[in-house]
Amino acid sequence: MKTIGLIGGMSWESSKIYYEYTNTMVKERLGGSHSAKSIMTSVDFSEIEELTFKGNWNKIGDLMANHAVKLEKAGADMTLLCTNTIHLVSDRITQSTAIPFLHIADATGEAIQAKGLKKIALLGTKFTMEKDFYTKILEDTYGLEVIIPSEQERQAVHTIIYNELVKGRFMESSKQICIQIIEGLTKKGAQGVILGCTELPLLISELDVAIPTFNTTRIHAEKAVDFALTDS
User: Fold this and answer.
1) Each residue of 127-164: pLDDT tens digit?
2) Which residues contact 190 (CB under 8 A, 6 or more apart)?
3) What is the layout of strands, in order, in the sheet containing 38-42?
């Protein structure tokens, strides 16, 4: 079994789910007392959040590269960045390390493609929804048409993520706002919705909406387990 390297803390609310998912999946596949071999390095999210709002992506890239190098030196066989938004600087990780980097948008794109869907809604932070580091992969590599909420709705989701979800607050009123936004995107032709913030699946489940949901945390973790259990 290969060792999974995890860069966590963005936020720890979802990072703990990565740990749970990877261990549960390995146990389900191998049985007995098996669990995942993993190494996690975790950041102080307050520092990352501040740099994000200042638009200092160069500094964030430096931090992610440093943590990725730590994982490689510690013996990780791959790197997972346990967040959607910070994949904006994922190229800094791939430039700084020699071990495979498993991109969350690739894992998600493969999962959507496997379902045969073509038009997909994307919810996440404003950075994930508005910048092209995520949607470009989905569109160019997987041939998907990606639609996002209106500017006002994007701000609403962004505020819910940063003011509530990353702080471990999951409010019914915010859940209903997100459901209404997804329903509106469904009316615009969305065949499924990407929960493109690793905390969003903690608020919304597949039972809450009429179209398929793509839990990026679970999808990403499953891809890591696939890699870890593949002989090569």
Assistant:
1) 999 999 999 999 999 999 999 999 999 999 999 999 99
2) 119, 120, 121, 147, 182, 211
3) 38-42, 4-8, 78-81
Rounded to two decimals, the pTM is 0.94
Exactly one of 22, 79, 83, 125 is catalytic; name it.
83
Task: Spot the catalytic one: 97, 108, 197, 213.
Answer: 197
Question: Does the annotation count 197 as an active-site position?
Answer: yes
Decide if 52 is catalytic: no
pLDDT tens digits, 160-177? 999 999 999 999 999 999
Q: How far, in Å, CA of 26 to CA of 34, rounded?
A: 7
For residues 3 and 37, the answer to whether their CB atoms sit within 8 Å is yes
Two structure tokens written together for 96: 């700084």
CA angle 142, 217, 40 (to 5 degrees): 120
